């Protein structure tokens, strides 16, 4: 996607050092600075990559997977020993517990690296990490095209713009490029459709107000930021045509784990007969688990994310301010689970399927 007139990805391999054919670092867009500060950070070690994932300099399930793959490439620079690679994979896996793409990417990297001779592992690691990143771009572009067909159907017969509500950030910043939930929106806008996005602020980290709003503005797509509790009201008054969200994990039965607050949007959409779609690449589907509420670990983040807020002050500095009385207790579950019964469809790179279709597809895979 583009910032101004320049094309960017969220993560990429750095330039090879003098006398080497392989990169020595990984470059990321530091998302903790957006929307007020755009900065690129160079990651030089597997520990630094694990920390970047943990503190959400990189975030979003597909991007976390790509970052973990590049983290393993950095680990291979440090040592091509099997023990070191296994330990590095455990370090990265522990950085965030909910997004299944993290585990998927690490398992893929180890399956690729461990069978080959140690002296080849570093070269293979950079190559495989690059493949994972490139595949993510292709997959997410395909999700956009599949979702475009749905949006065209929803717009058929309407004489006004199509209003789409989204929660958190599932645009290109959450992936290597294109995004998941926003990929259909980009495809629709680029195809000339009249679309508008209701952007949930998404407390407590405000990924909607800061990240989704920022990238939609970069692309020129009309949007309106709303507080998290406004969505149901808009649905009741016919101002939402569909909801599209991303996910950090989808079970084989179609339960959807996404940013906290998604469940409430799904309930409101169900009550108002509004389609609720989830856009995910297939690596986000966890075929090993059945019940989202029972089986998906929900990350508990720092309570200070709830009790404080950061923003741009009048003097141009970014400041962190307290919201609550001193000593207030706060709970901060980062995700919730939307049951499959509330999901209209799951948009993947292969098409849109119902949760029941996932069960059938999983059975066919096993056969």
Provide a descriptive summary of the structure in words.
This protein is α/β, with parallel strands linked by helices and about 375 residues long. The protein folds into two domains: about 1-135, Four Helix Bundle (Hemerythrin (Met), subunit A) (Up-down Bundle); about 160-365, Translation initiation factor eif-2b, domain 2 (Rossmann fold, 3-Layer(aba) Sandwich). The protein has helices at about 45-55, 60-80, 80-95, 100-115, 120-155, 185-190, 205-220, 230-235, 260-270, 290-295, 305, 355-365, and strands spanning about 1-5, 5, 10-15, 25-30, 40-45, 160-165, 195-200, 225, 240-245, 250, 255-260, 275-280, 285, 310, 320, 335-340, 345-350, 350-355. A seven-stranded mixed beta sheet has the order 8-7-6-9-12-17-18. A four-stranded mixed beta sheet has the order 13-10-11-16, with helices on one face. Strands 3-4-5 form a three-stranded antiparallel beta sheet. A hairpin with a 2-residue loop joins strand 1 (about 1-5) and strand 2. This is Methylthioribose-1-phosphate isomerase. Pathway: Amino-acid biosynthesis; L-methionine biosynthesis via salvage pathway; L-methionine from S-methyl-5-thio-alpha-D-ribose 1-phosphate: step 1/6. Belongs to the EIF-2B alpha/beta/delta subunits family. MtnA subfamily.
